[in-house]
Specification:
The chain is an alpha+beta fold. It is built from 9 helices and 6 strands, in the order H-H-H-H-H-E-H-E-E-H-E-H-E-E-H. Helix 1 packs across helix 4, helix 3 crosses helix 4 and helix 5 packs across helix 9. The protein is elongated, with a radius of gyration of 23 Å.
Length: 227
């Protein structure tokens, strides 16, 4: 006997669509949406024929969102954030192998004593090491040239240092990343460490990326402090 597959309702599909499009969700929270246009867009993208049902679902979800301005919460965090820029950054990509991590242990101990920062990101297939270019040879020698997959140099690290409330505020990383993407910036690597949001970009993109992030913070600083 075949099991019946329960189809998602139009309301549920509409809600999931809105959740998957943060820009649309923010406009709904600001009451800036033309629901007829939004309904037609959702109908087209999801192959739904019932416009009235989609429009009703959009309006009901708007009420559920409570007109909450999520972007304003993000800007409240950013108005107390500061930028820090470091040039001459290198990215060494190595095989994801326990021997590589073991060999990096000695380098990390040395850097810790010298108070030098190096980020290590372990993925499924590779280990990414972000460090000052002057450490490139030391890192390569430590992990072994045979374990190195790729080396990128002439990079810049831009850190957005925020207050601790960023931990409780969702969407800050996405907000900054989306602004960089909209500005045509290719972010090579990114990482969030406690209150620091770090983006690695090519040296050629340094001024544009820094300018975009600066505008994000400047815009946030214009908020009414009592909001």
């Amino acid at each position: 006997m075949k099991k019946e597959v329960q189809k998602e309702s139009i309301a549920e599909r509409t809600r999931l669509y809105i959740d998957a499009h943060p820009s649309v969700k923010d406009c709904i929270s600001k009451d800036l949406i033309n629901y007829s246009s939004l309904a037609r867009l959702i109908m087209k993208d999801l192959s739904i024929a019932n416009e009235e049902a989609v429009m009703i679902a959009c309006r009901r979800y708007a009420v559920k969102l409570g007109r909450r301005d999520h972007e304003r919460e993000i800007l409240k965090v950013l108005r107390n954030s500061r930028l820090e820029l470091k040039t001459k950054i290198a990215i060494i990509t190595a095989k994801n192998d326990w021997t590589v991590l073991h060999r990096l242990e000695a380098v990390l101990k040395k850097l810790f004593n010298e108070k030098t920062i190096m980020q290590i990101i372990q993925g499924t297939h590779a280990i990414t090491i972000i460090a000052d270019e002057k450490l490139q040879n030391e890192v390569v020698n430590a992990v072994g040239q045979e374990n190195v997959l790729k080396i990128r140099t002439d990079l810049v690290e831009i850190s957005v240092r925020s207050p601790e409330r960023i931990i409780e505020t969702s969407g800050v990383f996405a907000f900054l990343a989306n602004n960089l993407a909209d500005g045509g910036i290719n972010v090579l690597e990114s990482v969030s460490v406690f209150t620091d949001t770090i983006f690695i970009v090519n040296e050629d993109d340094m001024m544009q990326a820094y300018s975009i992030l600066s505008r994000c913070i400047e815009s946030a600083e214009k908020l009414n402090p009592d909001d």
